[in-house]
Amino acid sequence: SSRRPCRAMTERETEVAALIAEGLTDKEIGARLGISEHTVGVHASHIAKRLGILSGNTRVHITRHVLKTAA
Question: Which of 52, 35, 57, 43 is nearest to 11 (CA)?
């Protein structure tokens, strides 16, 4: 069974998702937002759960989501 997104992303998760879509690394995202690489990873995990991403390259799925919602 596939998971469904549980709720909308937080403002910070939206920022992290946008920076992932720009191709930044966790280290670069952390530096830009003033948070640790670990925290970026936690946000990315939460984003994946909210989007119902179960497997595969989560960064690719997050980027697709950002691009689709920006269109």
Answer: 43
